[in-house]
Amino acid sequence: MPFAAITYDVKPGYEAELTEIFRGFKRVKGNRVEDESGAEAGTLLATAVFLRDDTLVRVIEYTGDLDAVARHMAVQPGVVDFEESIKPYLSKPRETDTPEGFVATFKRSLLTTVVQFSSRDLPAAV
Q1: Sheet containing 55-64: which strands, arranged edge to edge?
Q2: What is the pLDDT of residues 2-43, one digit of tens each?
Q3: Which domain holds residue 74?
């Protein structure tokens, strides 16, 4: 399963506030990601968030099309609320007030995948 890592440039010294925002995050109701026609385009499997100083990174494990995942996230109420809540703590503004802006920001914020390893890719032990 692939992973995507998205960065946020945040003001240092607000670790407690940012942690609290993530603790209050409203999860999506389901993990199914649909394309514009309503067909299944992927799934959201897991999310992890890491924070140090002025860098926050959200890692998403997913299946399917990453563009569809970004479009799906752009309209999720919890994501919209989160993006609004984090604004005071950003050192660089994120244009996420519209689905189009969210998707563009998502793509700009992606870290380049260098390598991904998973024990799921190993042959089963005998």
Answers
A1: 3-9, 55-64, 40-52, 32-34
A2: 999 999 999 999 999 999 998 888 777 778 998 889 899 999
A3: 3-112
